[in-house]
Specification:
heterodimer, A: alpha/beta, Arc Repressor Mutant, subunit A, 4-stranded mixed β-sheet, 6 strands, 44% helix, B: globular
């Protein structure tokens, strides 16, 4: 914006502006935020029927911090940890999937509920439709094999490499797991180093240890 | 930029424009329609477009469409002696806020200046581009509009409301 347009921005008569804001009931605060949230939810629903949304998102709280959930028309497409930076992840998803990204807690209620149940120890398998477009090639093959590792158990990178048909691709399995676009839901946390230490994880090694600990406690 | 950031940044401004011109229910619909239209256009919108001014343009147009449609619906009533009963909302506003009534009763240029410049925070130049009027005309309308509102605001409520029936009558005789 050039100086000519900013120079005559309203500066005088704050009182008139103040009164207009008051009269329209749009003073910043919890009431306005709640109303805008409701409008955003409605917008997401209407846009979903018009098929003009690329990605819906919401966050859920968990023992490993706030989790970002992103879904397309197809299904859940990305789960992200706080340490990844939710804003940065949304920007990247906007580039990878499409820029029409909308927050809609309602449209991700089912996914949020299943994740809550998982962290409460009441769910072992996720019953969600997944959109796997963010993983390709060998990574996709690896990730599709992960649900074969039972809840509460772990497997080594080497054994997952064998199961994926490339026994020597241990390092590639490590990368595939460390960049899993759907952590928690696709259980890359069950793949650990041969010496038993957790290994690389999108949410950090500590988060990985929490998930392994939770599952082993539930099965014990 | 992802669309959600657009809603976050400009959702309040768009709501203000809609609420200044429409009752709260209609305003919510106009808000939704504005962002739905924006969603359709978003992937193809030039990167250098002034998003806020663009959204305000759409919101103003949606709101004026609603006002015009209301006018068309009201027309047949002109032929009966009784003045058309105002929708229940008007009573709420009359009790609640003489200011919005005064804003809505302003001539179009002054109303645009008050709503788009003073409430939504657009520059006179942006208002000029958006409404197709000259920069000078927008500055003048802004000053005149504020003066008219100030007169309305210092007057007792009866006086604030007085011009509205007169305007209606004037419109009806045309």
């Amino acid at each position: 914006m050039n100086d000519a347009t900013t120079a005559d921005r309203p500066t005088d008569d704050g009182s008139v502006r103040e009164r207009l804001v008051g009269a329209t009931g749009t003073r910043p605060g919890p009431a306005l935020d709640a109303h805008l949230d409701e409008l955003r939810d409605r917008l997401a629903d209407q846009a979903a029927s018009a098929r003009t949304v690329d990605v819906f998102w919401r966050t859920v709280t968990s023992p490993v911090g706030s989790l970002l959930l992103c879904a397309t028309d197809v299904g859940l497409v990305r789960v992200a940890f706080e340490v990844e930076g939710h804003d940065a992840v949304l920007d990247r998803v906007g580039v990878q999937v499409g820029p029409r990204v909308l927050r809609s807690p309602r449209r991700l209620d089912a996914a949020a509920a299943e994740i809550d149940e998982y962290f409460a120890g009441r769910r072992r398998d996720f019953d969600l439709v997944l959109d796997r477009r963010l993983s390709r090639g060998f990574q996709r093959t690896v990730l599709e094999h992960l649900p074969e590792i039972p809840y509460g158990r772990t497997a080594s990178y080497a054994s997952v490499a064998s199961a994926s048909g490339s026994p020597r691709a241990v390092r590639a399995v490590g990368t595939a797991c460390a960049t899993n676009p759907l952590p928690v839901v696709v259980p890359c946390h069950r793949v650990v180093r041969s010496d038993g230490t957790p290994g690389r994880y999108r949410g950090g090694e500590a988060a990985k240890a929490v998930l392994i600990g939770l599952e082993s406690e539930v099965v014990a | 930029m992802i669309f959600d950031r657009v809603v976050e940044l400009h959702g309040t401004t768009v709501l203000r424009v809609c609420r200044a011109l429409l009752d709260p229910i209609e305003a919510d619909d106009a808000w939704s329609e504005t962002f739905l239209a924006a969603l359709v256009a978003w992937p193809d919108l030039p990167a250098d477009v002034n998003v806020e001014a663009w959204l305000v343009t759409v919101a103003r147009r949606k709101a004026l469409d609603v006002v015009r449609a209301r006018g068309r619906r009201a027309q047949p009533v002109e032929h009966v002696p009784e003045p058309p009963a105002p929708p229940p909302f008007d009573e709420v506003v009359a009790r609640d806020d003489a200011l919005l009534r005064a804003v809505r009763a302003l001539p179009a240029g002054q109303r645009d200046a008050v709503v788009l410049h003073h409430l939504a925070g657009l520059s006179h130049l942006e208002v000029a581009e958006l409404t197709g009027r000259s920069h000078a005309a927008c500055r003048r309308a802004s000053a005149d509009g504020l003066a008219a509102l100030r007169r309305a605001l210092v007057s007792p409520p009866e006086a604030v409301l007085a011009p509205t029936p007169a305007t209606r009558l004037e419109g009806a005789t045309r």
